[in-house]
Write a structure and sequence with these properties.
Strand content: under 5%
Structural class: mainly alpha
Oligomer: single chain
Distance between the termini: 40 Å
Largest sheet: none
Length: about 120
């Protein structure tokens, strides 16, 4: 692959999936108690991160998938509103927003675009 070749938004997010899941885990861990150990919760959040990336980039956007991700978070016993708020901060604000130039939806910032899509978690 040519080093100068543009990276797709999906590839950029997928490359950061572990960092996103780690940030998500740190954000929600303080909001509740999961009956699973930290490594298991983190593994489940990694899987949810993959789903979130796919949902974020899906055309057309499917709000039901965002709600399913929210339900999976609740099934992990992160039920406090702070867990949802933290999730929206990590996913909706797109902590990787500057990793790919020119791949944002036209006319909207990545933050607004991601937040609008993941507000369906609530």
């Amino acid at each position: 692959m040519d080093a100068a070749a543009p990276v797709s938004l999906h590839d950029a997010l997928a490359a950061r999936r572990s960092a996103i899941a780690d940030r998500w885990y740190r954000a929600v861990a303080r909001t509740g108690f999961a009956p699973l150990g930290g490594p298991e919760v983190r593994a489940r959040l990694l899987a949810l991160t993959d789903r979130a990336i796919a949902a974020l980039l899906a055309e057309p956007f499917e709000p039901a998938e965002a709600r399913a991700i929210g339900a999976a978070l609740a099934a992990l016993h992160y039920l406090d509103p702070a867990a949802l708020e933290s999730t929206l901060v990590v996913l909706g604000r797109g902590k990787c927003q500057n990793s790919v130039h020119g791949r944002q939806p036209s006319g909207e910032s990545y933050q607004k675009w991601g937040t609008n899509r993941f507000v369906a978690l609530s």
